[in-house]
Specification:
Belongs to the KAE1 / TsaD family. Keywords: Acyltransferase, Cytoplasm, Iron, Metal-binding, Transferase, tRNA processing. Its cofactor is Fe(2+). Its EC number is 2.3.1.234. One of its GO terms (molecular function) is tRNA N(6)-L-threonylcarbamoyladenine synthase activity. The protein is an alpha/beta fold. The protein folds into two domains: 137 residues, 2-Layer Sandwich (Nucleotidyltransferase, domain 5), CATH 3.30.420; 174 residues, ATPase, nucleotide binding domain (Nucleotidyltransferase, domain 5, 2-Layer Sandwich), CATH 3.30.420.40. 45% of the residues lie in helices and 19% in strands. The strands form two sheets. It has a five-stranded mixed sheet with strand order 3-2-1-4-5, sandwiched between helices. Strand 1 and strand 2 form a beta hairpin. Helix 2 runs parallel beside helix 3, helix 6 packs across helix 8 and helix 8 runs parallel beside helix 9. Bound molecules: 5'-O-[(R)-(carboxyoxy)(hydroxy)phosphoryl]adenosine and zinc ion (ZN). Zinc ion binds next to helix 4.
Amino acid sequence: MNVLGIETTCDETAAAIVSPGEDGRGLIRANEVLSQIAEHAAYGGVVPEIAARAHVEVLDRLIARALETAGMRLADLDGIAVAAGPGLIGGVLIGLVTAKTLSLVARRPLVAVNHLEAHALTARLTDGLAFPYLLLLASGGHTQLVAVKGVGEYVRLGTTIDDAIGEAFDKVAKLLGLGYPGGPEVERMAEAGDPERFALPRPMLGRREANFSLSGLKTALRIEAERIAPLAERDVADLCAGFQAAVVDVVVDRLRVALRGFGAVAGHPTALVAAGGVSANGAIRRALAAQAGQAGLAFVAPPLALCGDNGAMIAWAGLERLRLGLVDDLTAPARARWPFAEAPAA
Ligand code: KG4
Ligand code: ZN
């Protein structure tokens, strides 16, 4: 079974082909990603109109290249999966219309995949992980703690009430005059910084629900930055280190709460899983690995290339759905918003 996956929800154009591999894992036959970061950098964030145009320009060639890398033709595919949302609607439409056209021409089933679900299932692509597991999904637009019980069965244990973690990293980077996207820049600066120089808050610490709040931390950092301006490189490094340390403390505390609540909704987890762009962060990965170890759980985080947005995760989620007969037709809508996890039953 070979599934093509198309991703155009944000600022990466991606196409990949995945087949079932050994031990329940997936086999990535091709994984092409073209990042638009350079086109958005001057604006300090993703510009939806520029993103949509850039997707149109490269997507067909990228799909052709994925087929070529895999040594396949359209007829060798068993399904066409596409991220139908959530995301920037212009980009989502381009991916979806392309996927529908291919589905029609090649007479292969279309699978409209939720981009967040694809991040959530990546640990099965890479590690063949069994359900259920506790997922920290942290990207530029989303921060959720989710009990992943099965394909299409996701219970939300916590979420952010303001900024997503990646968004907070991006905003802090912007505030400190670092580049976009901010996460990797803040992490790089933090390496040389003193995390204890500034007393930054740990919002939500000790709360009984596994929710996040990050805007207060960002504001506290801004106030410190303004107080000591102009900032020397040392100051920026210390602010980044302080911010990252605060985020790590908050994540660990929120996960502790989610782990406590997991049993009631899904039984015993097989692992703690990190997904989404933020899971590329080394400090967060190390803290999660240590925490999983203490809880006697395996820790699974995708390799860096599969942390951010990519086509392989879309192809894999499509493959998982296709195996269960969960296919879509040509009326599948593009969705700017598309929650994937349900609140727990009261
Ligand atoms: O999943 P993703 O590639 O795209 C979205 O769906 O949002 O996540 C991108 C986000 C950005 O906010 C970026 O700053 C953040 O992930 N990110 C990081 C790191 N690498 C990427 N945040 C913290 N540390 C990193 N090393
Ligand atoms: Zn993403």
